Amino acid sequence: xxxxxxxGILGLxxxxxxxxxxxxxxxxxxxxxxxxxxxxxxxxxxxxxxxLPWIFTDVMPVLLLGLVIISAFIALRFVTSLRGxxxxxxxxxxxxxxxxxxxxxxxxxxxxxxxxxxxxxSIPLLMLxxxxxxxxxxxxxxGKLQIRSSGGxxxxxxxxxxxxxxxxxxxxPVLLWGGxxxxxxxxxxxxxxxxxxxxxxxxxxxxxxxxxxxWGYLLLKSQIGMDAPALTADLLFVTSLGTIMWLWRNRTTLxxxxxxxxxxxxxxxxxxxxxxxxxxxxxxxxxxxxxxxxIPQNQLRIFRFPVxxxxxxxxxxxxxxxxxxxxxxxxxxxxxxxxxxxxIIALVRDCFAAPDRHWSxxxxxxxxxxxxxxxxxxLIMDGFTLRALADLGACFVAVSAGTALFYRLQxxxxxxxxxxxxxxxxxxxxxxxxxxxxxxxxxxAPA
Length: 447
Prior knowledge:
By secondary structure, the chain is mainly α. It is 75% helix and 0% strand. The protein has three domains: 1-94; 117-244, no CATH class; 274-441, no CATH class.
């Protein structure tokens, strides 16, 4: 590293130290709300991080700077004397979070990913510094319409504040320096603001400080080269999906933040595979609560985003396979993942509602419910052809195998298990048995 790099590192460390000391002094004198002080540090830290691409040309000094600051944050968290003093700037807010660590990691990753592109670096960081701060402060002060969640405190008012702040963080730089037209700049800003707002609402434990900038970077990089019609199609899809999620919220056991995360995943699937690929997760979401056995209210749970992660785990792999290989056969194990998940959810509810039902009948009924997802998706992809029959048959075998294996391995099915091991077991079984849906394509699949 050059002398300029060392001076840059030293200067930024001094800035961060002065910022912490100044906010601690303000905290002692004015006695503001702990959230306000934490978010002031959040916003100022992001703004001080904006000049990194102008100061450094290599990732190594940025990585070193990040490691030093992360080490300091860890000391502030765990050294009692520091935590009770200057560490109160960050930790006076009484909640579990690793947000300050994610913040620094995201800045380093942004610098590395953007490869010197100042626009791709600056816009996601601006959204993190300003939009996330606006959401937290508005939600804290004015949040009345709470987002239904099993943890955390996020509100509709905070989400709206995030959207409008993020919109200007994107629109102004893209319009002035992005080299795109006015219509494209407007659509990019709206699309990014909606999708990153959903990511922020779905995140927990401070992970929004990592998800918001990285997801913002990926979306900006993919959309900045798109024309207005393509951007309009993306906007129509995401607003339609978000509206469906919102109207469906009272008919599902998913928390609002989980629905936001599901909508985000739906957009990813749409972007990579197109609307036919988006059908299976959408059908699963709309059908699982209506085709499965009803559970007494005292047994219902409000599920958070990790449950959605368990539902999509197997399908993520097949979507990546399709993205990298462009092979259409990846669609069928992708579909079988969602069909098997519906079958297993139905099985768990059925075993609780009718514990005396014979295992063979329970499997047959609930595999049939799972095929409600596969049937329209495969027919729309294949049409009414012999190929569709082969694909449906292979998918049926995959769903049957996954459901039967889950029945055999899941303990205490009649007690309606909804703990972490159940979701992990389900995701692994579904991912493993989805390979069976490739049976008609074994000769054409690469070795």
